[in-house]
Amino acid sequence: MGKRVAVVLAGCGVYDGSEIHESSAVLVHLSREGAQAEVYAPDVDQMHVVDHVKGQPTQEKRNVLVESARIARGNIKDLAKLDVKGMDALIIPGGFGVAKNLSTWATQGKNCIISKEVEDVLKAFHTAKKPIGLCCISPVLAAKIFPGCELTVGHDTECEKWPYAKTAETMKELGCKHVNKHVTEIHVDVKNKLVTTSAFMCNAPIHDIYDGIGEMVKEVVRLA
């Protein structure tokens, strides 16, 4: 039997949910590594719904679990039912939904609150010494929960290639060690079994982002 990996989603769409390309890349690479992905999402309302053509919030209401089911092709479970004992590893793709629906990072930065369900799951995998893979903005969850951990969200100096580099500075303020890495690279915090890569935090070709996520997935499966 292949390794069983829980993949936690935060909706569907970069601006208000999970980043679709990142989520798909995680699932493809898990399949390639012979791992069995089990997809979960919290059964809660999204913070808001964004029109992805205009980039503006709308008056719609949507549910995180229902929207995440689009990416999972309907094969998804409520995060409340995730049993860490039956899993070998955890991966959380990025997208603004991580900062809006799984936490309040989008509005409060380092003073954010992590959703209790999400925090409980992360702590359970960490306590069980099972690897956790995080990409794009999702490393901020670990930065908030595991003080002193080592992470990457790419680079810490803002430029055209790294438009979200200030995130790294905020994570440092939480007491984390941020390690600069290229988009195709990963950082492994051996002590905490955290594997991180920058993905769309970098303004890079999509195949580079796909490759970086592949390295993250490969290492998570290896550590499991």
From TrEMBL:
<dbReference type="InterPro" id="IPR029062">
    <property type="entry name" value="Class_I_gatase-like"/>
</dbReference>
<protein>
    <submittedName>
        <fullName>GAL3A protein</fullName>
    </submittedName>
</protein>
